[in-house]
Write a structure and sequence with these properties.
Helix content is 62%, strand content 0%. The chain is mostly helical. The longest helix has 24 residues.
């Protein structure tokens, strides 16, 4: 009987030593373990020395932590992981100073020009995503002054489309002319958004000028700009008939819808 008590005492010492070593190496796990041990009275005792390597744990020894383990979580806005700290600082600074031209120019000279290439591209992309088009244009002007800059039609496209959607057609056409000077040609989406912007502003003549420029483009025209014009030029039957004729010649298998004559007259 005395021998059994001594063996039991040594067994308890070995278990306490194992728990102490585990708590030193894995403090977070030990904290979770002891909290669960105190909260769940059904877990009385777990023997770490009697567990075999290939033996699955018993149901009574398995527990699930249903509380925060204290480790830091990631940012709620996952896009921040793709943007460096310098780029984030510049974005916040540009937005903070956008109402003060003097401070904004000073901030650009002291902070924006020192950014790396990837950070500059991240800044202009994020400004476009947040619809800060004016700041994105300033960032684009900075990028154009860099040694690594090469004419990029996609940068122009994003800015022109943003300006057209914001009903700032004069600025959009200013970038349009700069793009043409760099021997770049818009794609179908750019033509479509600019034409839609002029039609929205009630300027069918300007929309037709862009349309004529599209016909001269080296890339073959697509169907969508024609559809936008055919719909937007319903109050202007003469202009619409010209676009419809070109549409039927380029897309003979397609059909152009004509509204009833009592709505807009005979087209």
């Amino acid at each position: 009987m005395r021998y059994l008590k001594v063996a039991q005492f040594h067994q308890n010492l070995r278990e306490m030593a194992a728990i102490r070593v585990l708590s030193r190496k894995l403090p977070t796990f030990a904290s979770i373990f002891f909290q669960t041990l105190t909260r769940n009275p059904s877990i009385h005792r777990i023997s770490f020395l009697n567990l075999k390597p290939n033996t699955p744990p018993k149901p009574s020894s398995v527990f699930v932590a249903q509380f925060h383990d204290g480790r830091p979580r990631g940012p709620l806005w996952r896009g921040k992981k793709l943007i460096g700290k310098e780029a984030l600082f510049v974005i916040l600074g540009l937005k903070r100073l956008k109402e003060d031209d003097e401070k904004l120019e000073k901030f650009i000279k002291t902070h924006v020009f020192r950014l790396l290439k990837l950070d500059m591209l991240a800044v202009i992309g994020e400004l476009e995503r947040q619809e800060e088009t004016a700041l994105a244009i300033k960032m684009f002007e900075v990028i154009q002054k860099q040694e690594w800059y090469q004419p990029d039609v996609f940068m122009y496209k994003d800015l022109i489309v943003s300006l057209a959607k914001s009903k700032r057609m004069d600025e959009a056409m200013g970038l349009w002319e700069k793009m043409k000077k760099e021997n770049l040609f818009p794609d179908s989406q750019t033509y479509t958004e600019v034409i839609r912007g002029f039609l929205r502003d009630g300027c069918p003549a300007d929309a037709m000028n862009v349309y004529e420029d599209m016909l001269k483009s080296p890339d073959p025209p697509e169907e969508l700009p024609f559809r936008v014009l055919l719909k937007g030029l319903l109050p202007h039957p003469l202009l619409r008939n010209k676009v419809k004729k070109d549409f039927e010649e380029l897309f003979p298998e397609k059909h152009a819808y004509d509204p009833p004559e009592e709505i807009f007259g005979r087209c």
